[in-house]
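Supplementary Methods, section 5.1.

A reviewer requested that the exact input to the structure prediction be made available. We therefore reproduce it here, unchanged from the version used in the analyses.
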Amino acid sequence: MQQLIEDFLQYLRHERGQAEHTQKTYAALLNKFVAWAAAQKLTGWESVELPHLTAFLQHERQRAVAKEPPGSPRRLSGESVYLEIAALRAFYRFAENEKLLPSNVAENLSLPRRWKRLPKALTNAEIEKLLEPESPETPPNLCDQAVLELAYASGLRLAELRNLRLEQLHLDAGFLNVIGKGNKERVVPVGQKAVEALNRYIAAARPTLVTPRSPASVFLTKRGTPFAAVTLWLRIKRRARRAGVTRNVTPHMLRHSFATHLLEHGADLRVIQELLGHASISTTEVYTHVTGNRMREIHRRFHPRA
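The structure derived from this sequence is encoded token-by-token as follows.
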């Protein structure tokens, strides 16, 4: 069973160009099913039928959340179950198309309706606090400053920040090339403040971080290596705490802030879609709900007849 999962992951990697995070997520979800199937004495995918899949999903809905204390009432979220169904459906679709399995027993698994979570954006005041340069200037501080300025100026994903290479920067012209999800390339403008922060970091800080084995990644750790996702995530959270921002800041909040603030100031939704690298306009439309809520709040507070 494991070999077929590996074939599926190779397909995601080489033919679909899926992000590393997506591959790892699908691998973890499918391996959960394999572990459950082994306990049910199922030794091959050919012996798996639809009732087995539904029994597994029912087991997952009732399973206690990992790392919770014994007796905790918390159970797996609907979002997690949605992802497990999506992983099984994608796997079986691949196996059927490649003639690796005789039929797609997951095609009748229905995906539950997902609640749309409105993205959380930082306020202008919080952005100002977060982007205030730290002193004294040190290589890590200059690196953090460049990461934050670029994340807010261009709306990059965490993976896009981590994987950004020097040859993708065209700072004199004010833009950079980004390799996004599915290895899709897009051109993103960079604001003047971000250009200045990047130039300062590249000139004064990055040379002190480089080692003979360092790659051409723009952002490097103290050891001269590219950032792991969790390391960059923690760096941003620590910087936010030092800046006095009390909210739980994540890298994606800077991306959301980028899109929300553009829309609030009149940017076209299609332009924002291109800048964010969204394949579908429906993904970008969630920001119209965010700004709509803000407009209602402004109306309530300031209109004399509200």
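Residues 20-39 form the longest helix (20 residues). These observations are discussed further in the main text.
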